[in-house]
Amino acid sequence: MTDLIKLRGVNKYYGTYHALRDIDLTIRAGEFFSLLGPSGCGKTTLLRVIAGFEGVSAGTVMISDRDMANVPPNQRPTNMVFQSYAIFPHLTVAENVAFGLRKRSDIAKSARAGLVEEALEMVALGGYGKRAAHALSGGQRQRVALARALILKPKVLLLDEPLSALDKKMREHMQVELIRLQRHVGITFILVTHDQEEALVMSDRIAVMFAGEIGQMDDPETLYRRPKSRRVAEFIGKMNFLPGQVTALSAAGEASSGAPLAGHAPGTVPPNRTNRLLTDLMDKIAPGTEANADTDTAEEAAASPEVMTVDIAGLGAAQISVDQAPEGAKLGEVAVGIRPETLAILFEGEMPKRHECPGVVDEVVYYGDMTYYDVRIKDVPQPLTIAMKNLIGRPVLEVGAACRVAWDDRALVLF
Amino acid sequence: MSLRVYAIAYLIFLYAPIVLLPLFAFNDATIIAFPLSGFTTEWFSALKTNGSLHGALTNSLIIAGCTAVFSTLLGMCAARAAAMSHFPGKGGITGFVMLPLVLPEIIVAVSLLVILRQVLGLDLGNWTIIMAHVLICTPFSIAILNGAFGNLDPSMEEAALDLGESRWSAFRLVTLPLVMPGIISSMLISFTISLDEFIIAFFLTGSDPTLPVYIWGLLRFPAQLPVVMALGTILVALSIILLTIAELFRRRGIKRSGAKDTGGFL
After folding, report:
1. Superfamily of segment(s) A3-235
2. CA dihedral in degrees (A214, A219, A220, A221; nearest 10)?
3. Which of A305, A354, A359, B20 is deepest in the core (most CB within 10 A)?
4. Does B159 reach chain A within 8 Å, measured CB to CB?
5. What residues of B are in contact with residue A80 (Cβ under 8 Å)?
6. Is residue A211 a contact partner of residue A41, using CB atoms and an 8 Å limit?
7. CA distance, residue B210 to nearest chain A CA (Å)
8. Chain B residue with Cα closest to A80
9. A373 vs B247, which has greater pLDDT?
């Protein structure tokens, strides 16, 4: 895929308020890209910068390798679906959809009616053309806004929280519709949303924004499974955080340094030895040393990734791979994140997992398909939230019930 | 119960004098007193043939028409600025623009007279009255148009821009039709205010009086009093009709822009 939109070092100030901080962003052609963040994080400002409604204080915005600095919104290859939809209430549905064709001399007047009907059919509003726009429902307005923008075949469609005004059912329905539409037209969509679920469902890639900065930019799965910071993890889905201690760092493939690591269980390495291992390892992962490492080492390292040992408060030691931890991780205190659905309560007859410990149910929240338990475990500072699917034959535990909690090293994320 | 009595008494107090106007306008006697003596349309016929009255009426209509147009244009600029942009000192400037609403008219009239005659040395005439009336009507226009522009979704114009229109055509194609009811309402109210304004017109009028000034002149001749009553009746009817139309347009505008009605002049 080719790069369609390139933002480099974009900064935006409102007076002394720093709304966008050094935004670097590349959006590929045909991508469904989401800007996700809490209100006031600058995601809408960023969208308006791309649309041309806001200028930048510093940095460049390129669309199709063309600098947009002096290009007004009406000459940019972008179209926008506004949060309020901004359907012109004094016009009919067809007049709304045809509005953007007025200035398009390349489209014959005689062809316009057909295009309008085509666009309306695309959003399942065929035959609605003659209706007055102000009499439409919320969902219909949103479709008209989509048709009005898509009829111009923009390179980029910008969507500013287009679903936030709809009720839950309608919103879920329109999410699927939008994905289908985007695949059908092949236009790059940039969606602004504060709803993490919506972003996960719809996007190819997501940029999570906080206070004018991009906290993390990844595909939905990476973002959810390997959040790079605690605030990203907290914003996307639920996560339990426990204090922990990295007690050992080891590299299974550390052949070149000569340290006989392979086969040693890192947890059993005595402390003074661990420290030496650490310095060795830090040398290895420090920037610039990669060039020195011979190819054998690189291959071996890929086959057996470096591991770390983490002592989690109340849960005990766990072995994790370094890609579960931030870059340049070292010994010392960390926060350990565990998603509720990666923890499990073992019901009768279920096999024990790798780690298991006893607990007491502290709180039960029943969602129908799922039950969320807060479980108190000895020596764990706060109750852990555990999400369990309500499968057939599986009881819903009551507050105060004793249970067995299972967890897996692979689900841990270090911050 | 007592509240109802109070409300009725209050309404009588407000409207009794106005109800008396048409009563005596159709009364067949030159003296304004009860009992009524009979029905006549003589006073209305007298209005038709009165040349100097027609002159005064023409003056007033020209002044009111010009005032309506100018104050609404100024009001549009101010209301749009207030609704759409943020600039330093916005609150202070808005307050300052609205100030003539509460300034005593007699003060405005005297100070304008001094400035126009003594400082600028201009001759008094319709134009001087128009200027003064624009001054007092603009705050009313701003108040009405603030509602119209304030209820407008700012994304509307942006959407038009986004769809390829220039700033001016976006305003003309989207904003203007949506605030048009407010514009008409503002013009009608300015027209009404200017039409029956007396104090400023009295001070600034040249050799040709406006209608209210002419009526005031008539009062010196008791025999003409029933004619004044007839004229007053027509003016009251006209004012009510114009204000009703203005209010209807204002409500239609709010309905059109899809906002909730937050009150108005009527």
Report:
1. P-loop containing nucleotide triphosphate hydrolases (3.40.50.300)
2. -130
3. A359
4. yes
5. 158-159, 162
6. yes
7. 40
8. B162
9. A373
